[in-house]
From TrEMBL:
Gene3D superfamilies: 3.40.50.2300, lambda repressor-like DNA-binding domains (1.10.260.40). InterPro entries: HTH_LacI, LacI/GalR-like_sensor, Lambda_DNA-bd_dom_sf, Peripla_BP_I. Pfam families: Peripla_BP_3. This is LacI family transcriptional regulator.
Amino acid sequence: MGNITIKMLAKQLNLSTAAVSKALRDSHEISPTTKQRVLDLAAILNYIPHPYAGSLREKKSRTIAVVIPEVADSFFSLALNGIEAVAIEKGYHALIYLTHENQEREREILKDLESGRVDGVIMSVAMKTNTFEHIRLLHQAVPLVFFDRVCEEINTAKITTNDYECGYLATKHLIEAGCKKIVLLSVSESLSISSRRMQGYKQALLDHQMDETLCRVIDYNEDLTMNYDLLIELLKSKDRPDGIVATVSKMTTEIYLACMERGLNIPNDIKVVCFSNDSNAPIFNPSLTTITQPAFEMGKLAATILFKALKRNSMVLSDESAVIPSDLLIRASTAGLL
């Protein structure tokens, strides 16, 4: 008959794949009668959870999945360290899945994880994700905890930082440093973190009575060449900014190179603040003023909450949400002549 899948079990039993997956994991959400039906058929058909060969009596894979956009970003690298520190302590393996900021890739990964190959998932959503049914289906199948880039539509634990306050604080810092034309470089309005940082930016402009016609939001995308060209055009314009708030770390190098190409001095001609956990920030020339996020702590807390949920099936995950504050670290990129 070939490999038996959860879909095949679900079809024969007239149940959803999520219900079958939960029954196989002994979830409290499934009645004892339904669990027994699932286990009986699985035993008859010799169902073996992929990719773990073994007995149906084994209720845990001892594995969690971490779904993130990328690992090159210093934030996610530090967060992974925090997650793995907890997973190792609990005797679990962490499988890392990269979406590469692609919603279709994200959908494929989550569909695969619905099968029960992992006990739980920690996730940060892709940049362009704007529909959430694939995430909802995963949440029905296994415990799910978000960190950093969260999905507000899913009622589960969300570990975030104070993005609104940080957007406000970064903008306020540039205003106090003498900037009149402040640009926010944003990656996606659909991302919760981008939206909140933009809201903080706009509120700071309003509170300090800045001329909003001279301040604007510029949208970035995944095309590095296009982004660099966009920066060059921005810095060539008559109303070029004298202050930039960059909402993600990978923008930093492009900003510095574009300023160098245009012969602009940081910080005397233009001041720069970046949301970044890059360990190279202090040795940039000039050193980079950053909003530094508690990436390790966020990853560690997300994992701690997930393992609590795996131990206690009745736990309400949404009650475990937390906000861990970030820090403004002022360096030379916002100093200089006023």
